[in-house]
Design brief:
The complex is a heterodimer of chains A (167) and B (285).
Chain A (H helix, E strand, L loop, with lengths): L10 H133 L5 H16 L3
Helix pairs in contact in A: 1-2
Chain B lengths: L1 H31 L16 E5 L6 E4 H21 L9 H21 L7 H16 L12 H20 L3 H8 L7 H45 L16 H32 L5
Antiparallel strand pairs in B: 1-2
Helix pairs in contact in B: 1-2, 2-3, 2-4, 3-4, 4-8, 5-7, 5-8, 7-8
Classes of the chains: A mainly alpha (167), B mainly alpha (285).
Chain lengths: 167, 285
């Protein structure tokens, strides 16, 4: 079996070797780099998508949270105002009721006082007429004569007026 | 279940595709190697010629280097197919991680040495690395390393030279010609020699390293065999014919010449390719 010399240059062998390197380039590109790159790119895009989705949902969650907080604050304020108005209304109403009650009480007292005064007047009147009658009777009995009732009334009244006047 | 069994069958076929070419090359070598008698001494020669095809300019001898490089190419094809077989978006196998690691590493290497616009060179660089390193490492199987044949490396270097020139011409033919006359016209012969020297130096560096490793290994193995025969030849029967001294030292040398030197030269060749092409391209292109 023959061998080549240790250094021997052969044109066709060089060409074949050159083509071999081109072939190995094609093999590497087609069977290793392309499928692996494709898979890695797909994974990258998937990861990107997942991340952007997560960002989106976080944003929307934050927005919802903000909205809820706003709503909650609004509701709290509303409740506060409601309570305040209710308290005010109740206060007003209570004041009104008290005022009415006071007025009624005052009214009733006035009426009672007026009635008392009236009755007192009446009573005084009665007592006065009684006394005058009594006085006339007594006087007629005492003097035993007919006193002109008409002339006498004025005198008795004057007398009683002076007697009954507490001042 | 059906698809799983089919995937496994494909895996086995691909592993066979990786192993069989190398095994075939080894078989071919074993069948054709003549028994060299010890008395003839050591003989260092190039690749074995299996047969010769008559061609117009020069006859084409099909040598062990050619056959072995084809075997390596087929194996690399098998490895690529095996690594990317059943590749998924969400990786569930170690081989996919290995494939992604390879692609990522080469991409990063190309990106850092040549820049983003040359990222298309990544498969080319990976091809050089794989072909060169595995060709050198095939000597571990007892094969004639294709990288210790100057023709193989010269072919690669000429392809690289073509690429370099292609990128230089992108800057314009006039600029390319003017480049030879800078900084002063007297330098023109030197520049032309320097241009031609690029592929030659690249190929001879790689080829010379692997070849010299092989030569030194052969010489030392022969020397050890002779020494063993002289020192231990008195042992009776076949015991005296066994070269005991060949155990040990050749293994250490093989570690350096076959594994370290082979991988190193593959890396250097790839690095030089990237550097030359990246510097050849005009800045703005």
């Amino acid at each position: 079996m023959q061998s080549l010399d240790i250094i021997s240059v052969n044109f066709w062998q060089i060409i074949i070797s050159l083509v071999n390197l081109l072939i190995i380039y094609r093999i590497m590109k087609k069977f290793l780099f392309k499928p692996v790159q494709k898979v890695m790119d797909t994974r990258q895009s998937q990861v990107d998508r997942i991340f952007s989705e997560a960002d989106d949902s976080r944003d929307s969650a934050n927005q919802m949270k903000r909205e809820y907080e706003q709503k909650l604050a609004g509701a709290r304020q509303e409740a506060d105002t409601m309570i305040k108005t209710a308290a005010q209304t109740a206060q007003l109403r209570g004041d009104q009721i008290v005022a009415e009650a006071k007025e009624q009480a005052a009214h009733a007292r006035q009426k009672a006082e007026r009635e008392i005064a009236q009755q007192k007047q009446q009573m005084l009147q009665d007592v006065r007429s009684e006394i005058s009658e009594l006085a006339v009777d007594i006087a007629s009995k005492v003097v035993e004569r007919e006193i002109n009732q008409k002339d006498y009334d004025g005198f008795v009244d004057e007398f009683i007026q002076n007697v009954g006047d507490p001042s | 279940m059906q698809s799983k069994r089919r995937a496994r069958a494909v895996d086995i076929l691909l592993i066979l595709l990786i192993v069989l070419p190398l095994a075939g090359a080894m078989t071919l070598k074993v069948l054709t190697t003549p028994d060299a008698p010890l008395s003839e001494g050591v003989q260092i020669s190039g690749a074995q010629i299996y047969f010769t095809i008559p061609m117009p300019i020069q006859d084409l001898p099909i040598t062990a280097a050619q056959v072995n490089s084809w075997a390596v190419i087929l194996s690399i094809l098998g490895v690529c197919l095996y690594l990317t077989h059943g590749i998924k978006v969400i990786p569930d196998s170690k081989r996919q991680l290995a494939a992604e690691w390879i692609v990522d590493t080469v991409n990063r290497l190309v990106r850092s040495n040549m820049g983003e616009k040359f990222i298309g060179f990544a498969p080319f660089v990976a091809g050089i690395l794989a072909l060169s390193a595995l060709s050198s490492l095939s000597s571990l199987l007892g094969l004639f390393a294709p990288t210790s044949d100057v023709n193989i490396i010269l072919g690669w270097a000429i392809l690289v030279f073509i690429l370099i020139t292609h990128y230089k011409l992108k800057g314009g033919l006039w600029a390319y010609i003017k480049g030879f006359f800078s900084p002063i016209p007297v330098f023109a012969p030197l520049n032309i020699i320097g241009e031609i020297a690029t592929p030659i130096s690249m190929s001879f560096r790689h080829y010379g390293n692997v070849m010299s490793g092989m030569v030194i290994s052969t010489l030392i193995a022969f020397a050890l065999r002779s020494l063993s025969q002289t020192v231990l030849g008195w042992l009776p029967g076949t015991l005296g014919k066994i070269p005991f001294l060949q155990v040990g030292l050749p293994a250490v040398l093989s570690l350096y010449f076959d594994i370290f030197s082979g991988c190193m030269q593959a890396f250097i060749f790839a690095m030089l390719t990237m550097m030359f092409i990246a510097t050849a391209a005009p800045e703005d292109a």
